[in-house]
Design a protein that fits this description.
five-stranded mixed beta sheet; 12 helices; transferase; BadF/BadG/BcrA/BcrD ATPase family protein
Amino acid sequence: MVDPGDSEGTLLCLDAGQTITRTQFRRNGTVIGESEHAGVLTDRPLLPQLATAVRSGLHAADSTVDVAAIGVSGLVDNADASELLDMLAGTGIREVLLAHDSTTSYLGAIGDELGAVVAAGTGSVTLAVGATRTARVDGWGYLIGDAGSGFWIGRAALDRAMQAHDGRGAPTALTAVVRRDFDDLEEAYLELQADELKVSRIAGYAQSVAELAATDMVCRRISEEAADLLAHAVFAGLRRVGQAEREDPMVGAVGNAFRNTVLRDRFEQVLRDQLPKLRFVEGRGNGLDGCYRMTLVAPDSALRQRINRATASERPQD
């Protein structure tokens, strides 16, 4: 394995989400540059999108990049890092570390310690890590999962707005928010169905819910429902890896959904109701930090099994 700490080259960290992809360059652990690019579409092949994102990010680098450490939303467990390395031929990259963003979010939040981390941005996923095993909870996409995520919140906001419009639900300021975005509110569903970027667009309404949660009861209820779902995922993960029996498990929370203070406070309250001595960590690091820490994971860590790796020197020669 190429050691980024000893390399004279540069480490490229790439955090690919459904709304935005961020790249960061580090030399000897120090950040020397950052850039942002379009998010990935998880209903399309991911590796070609990642190769494009890496090549776009390399334009911002002023030195040779040896290692690319990548966390991505929607990645399957058997993703082939060597296939991505092949796609990066000619870039100078000699090693690729590839993982689902639940792994990089975990590492960014609490490092290589035992516990659970919930990442709630456009999507949502929880990763729990025990002494010998890991457990992923949710992160199953906007159609059948991602409970409590930005998309889930945005979808709920649209639903409540349309209920209020129809007279089926309580009045809410969300109706006016949604009405500003569409010429005809009753045709909004048609426009959204046809939008290639509908997932991130719908998730965008989570910000309005957060802004209105203190004054609008409908938004408060959506926020609290999301918090309950995210907390439930944490409990499930801790049980599966044998950490629920601890009095003081470590739990991290990352992602834009937690900028909603009603959601964030409710989430912590639900956790502490069952685990009063919980060690709650927020804001220690992000997905990019996790990409960097992925290169430093201890050999005996259960997290190693969640990192796909390919090195140029290990591939068969033609």
